[in-house]
Amino acid sequence: MVHKFQQGRLILASNSPRRRYLLSRAGLSFEVLPSGVDEAQVPYDTPAAYTQTLARAKALDVAERRPDAWVIGADTIVVIDGQPLGKPRGRTAAREMLHQLSGQTHQVFTGYTICCIAHNHHVTDVVCTDVTFKSLSEPEIEWYIHTDEPFDKAGAYAIQGLGTFLVQRINGSYTNVVGLPVCEVIAHLIEAKVIRIAADGEP
Ligand SMILES: Cc1cn([C@H]2C[C@H](O)[C@@H](COP(=O)(O)OP(=O)(O)OP(=O)(O)O)O2)c(=O)[nH]c1=O
């Protein structure tokens, strides 16, 4: 019999229900402690640098309060033609974003940090996924906006929700688009020995 052991106390430094769902689907037990980081205070430079800076800030903010724990922080943005799209502030912004994304390929960047102050451990990385939207009609865009789903999502859509109909193709990690690249995060937790997978009798 093979078992999965979780050896470290894990905290998800996030308000996002999507990140919570992804981590619990991966079979991890963890606490949720959102960071107090104000995203508006961080200047935008490149998508990779920006998402990693925010992921690091979110994780460290929580790690300083809980130095014994392994903390995961993340940040997701959508980028089209080099322009970043965050969360839409209203219907007009959501409409503009969906028009921009219609019929095009864009990139979703998620920066993530895993750190533990007591173990003097810190890793930050970023994963990028290409997402191609179908060409959207006006009624499709209006219908989607009226579902209210776009409003707390980067790029004004949720691939995991009703917005699944918008997406023709993806190239890369699906969970990265939803908000946390689970394959990479789990691989790192195994490497750092926070998670161990072992058979009966193995030390
Ligand atoms: C593109 C896309 C984004 N999103 C979400 C993931 C993130 O929750 C959100 C991007 O905002 P973020 O600022 O990355 O995260 P957050 O504010 O929701 O949570 P926290 O900072 O506390 O960790 O967009 C989807 O749910 N589905 C998608 O298809």
TrEMBL record:
Biological function: Nucleoside triphosphate pyrophosphatase that hydrolyzes dTTP and UTP. May have a dual role in cell division arrest and in preventing the incorporation of modified nucleotides into cellular nucleic acids.
Pfam families, per the entry: Maf
Catalytic activity: N(7)-methyl-GTP + H2O = N(7)-methyl-GMP + diphosphate + H(+); UTP + H2O = UMP + diphosphate + H(+); dTTP + H2O = dTMP + diphosphate + H(+)
Name of the protein described by the UniProt record: dTTP/UTP pyrophosphatase
Organism listed in the record: Desulfatitalea alkaliphila
GO biological process: nucleotide metabolic process
Main location: cytoplasm
Top class in the EC scheme: hydrolase
